Write a sequence for this structure.
């Protein structure tokens, strides 16, 4: 599992920082999460193939999370995209995009599908045989969701030495990885646990931006390998965080501790601060394993 930060600053773009957008590479899927201005430029800078992006997850309709979407959709068309594109986001996102396509006479030549969300309860929004994506309802000034991306448990790993030692016909190897026992020609049953190793533990990633500090999300992010949690403000602006329905770095650290996550990644920094180092220091008052997101930075889990 690899996370690439395309942008992680709040509010407006600057010449040296970008608003929120990131790419999650998990189980051979490439998911784009939020799509602020400059996203497609950042995709190119980070050498991420446009053609691999088939699913885009938008947290909410504030500009610093979605204003790059129409440009990316248009570029896909200019690049003669063939694959369907699925967009998941709050109710209203379809109208936001299609009115721009209509007024510019720029209807896509590929399938464009919107999956609009309005539930305040967690729900599964995408699932296939490898990955499940569910919403994390957040508390912000407008309807907002985070997303949890979870690998499904894979196949058990064949112990080839054991299989050969028991003289198991290779025709049975596939069934063995599916967890089945083997019946030999002499009537002996070989238990699957003697022929396989445990499957690789599945990875889990949670994205939470933007939100007021809320412990209601803890059951939804419990134990994830990595949590990206917004940290717009430092403690000196805690009152402003409450008014604008954002979180501080220390509050993000507290959520990570209560949810027993393995790693916390901070982002969505207010551009009022000259340095992001204090965000790390304040989050570590609550939780030790913290890293700072920054534009172009990647994390592998």
């Amino acid at each position: 599992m690899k996370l690439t930060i395309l942008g992680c600053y709040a509010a407006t773009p600057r010449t040296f920082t970008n608003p929120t957008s990131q790419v999650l590479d998990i189980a051979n899927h490439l998911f784009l999460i939020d799509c602020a201005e400059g996203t497609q430029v950042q995709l190119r800078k980070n050498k991420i193939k446009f053609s691999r992006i088939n699913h885009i997850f938008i947290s909410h309709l504030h500009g610093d999370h979605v204003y790059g979407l129409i440009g990316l959709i248009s570029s896909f068309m200019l690049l003669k995209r063939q694959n369907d594109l699925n967009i998941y986001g709050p109710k209203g996102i379809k109208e936001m995009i299609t009115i721009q396509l209509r007024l510019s006479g720029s209807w896509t030549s590929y399938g464009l599908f919107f999956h609009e969300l309005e539930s305040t309860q967690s729900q599964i929004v995408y699932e296939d045989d490898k990955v499940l994506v569910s919403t994390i309802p957040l508390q912000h000034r407008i309807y907002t969701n985070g997303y949890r991306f979870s690998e499904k448990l894979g196949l058990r790993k064949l112990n080839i030495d054991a299989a050969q030692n028991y003289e198991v016909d290779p025709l049975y190897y596939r069934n063995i990885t599916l967890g089945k026992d083997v019946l030999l020609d002499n009537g002996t049953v070989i238990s699957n646990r003697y022929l396989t190793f445990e499957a690789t533990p599945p990875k889990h990633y949670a994205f939470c931006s933007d939100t007021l500090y809320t412990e209601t999300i803890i059951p939804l992010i419990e134990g994830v390998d990595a949590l990206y949690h917004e940290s717009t403000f430092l403690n000196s602006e805690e009152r402003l965080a409450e008014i604008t329905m954002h979180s501080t770095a220390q509050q993000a650290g507290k959520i990570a501790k209560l949810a027993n996550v393995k790693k916390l990644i901070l982002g969505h920094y207010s551009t009022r601060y000259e340095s992001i180092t204090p965000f790390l220091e304040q989050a570590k008052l609550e939780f030790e394993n913290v890293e700072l997101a920054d534009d172009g930075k990647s994390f592998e889990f």
Summary: The radius of gyration is 22 Å. The first strand starts at residue 2 and ends at 7.
